[in-house]
Amino acid sequence: MTRPEQRGGPLRLAGPVEAPPPHEAAPRASQADRVYEQLRAQLLRGELPVGRRLVEQALAAEFATSRTPVREALRRLEGDGHIERDPSGGLRPAVPSVRSMHELYDVRLALEELVVRRAATSGDRGALEALRHEWVALQAARRAPSGEVDGPEFVHADEGFHETVARASGNDVAVRLLCDLNDRIRILRIHDFTLDARIGATIEEHLEILDTVLAGDADAAAAFMRAHVQRSALVVRERVGQALARMFEGPG
Description:
This protein is mostly helical. It folds into 2 domains: 23-93, Arc Repressor Mutant, subunit A (Orthogonal Bundle), CATH 1.10.10; 98-249, Up-down Bundle (Four Helix Bundle (Hemerythrin (Met), subunit A)). Helix content is 69%, strand content 2%. A two-stranded antiparallel sheet has the order 1-2. The radius of gyration is 20 Å and the shape is elongated.
């Protein structure tokens, strides 16, 4: 799946990279990854109360590791927007803004309808056909016995789908606005893919949209896109609401 930093082409290293010492850096990295993944899962499920301060020493004891991997995990979570600093400098779970969520999805809906209509009437057919081929392959891979898809990782693939449709429409301003919008709502949209069923439904909805776009039916494409975005917004609102309820309730 394509990550945001890879959208412009193959990922390239900035310069020569020295191999880490065999018994030092690799275990530390794996510990940081483990803490990051487990903390992120707790945050997405709303299991950490809003008022809980995330203290390195306490987390290190909880995850049976040293403070260094915990510090790295917290740095990544802060960069992702999952946690934020309070006025005293402490780190706490970030609280999603419900009002901003509604406003951002309203803007997203208008943009998505605009670009899908244009893609259906005068879009880059080669790019759209290639995109359909990618999602048919993803659907087949997911249906394979070992075809599990990680929800947070799927967000990047989903963003890539919508941004490719926008680029195929030829409206460069809409592409820039949609990319900026995706950056703003990414932390919310992760909640849309916490269940495997939503990933499967999203793949099918993407293919429905592409079929109507390639058929040149702008009205049908816009209708499918509207239903797709609205369905995503409803799921996100429900899951965010559940997570917020758990966060404010705290431990029972």
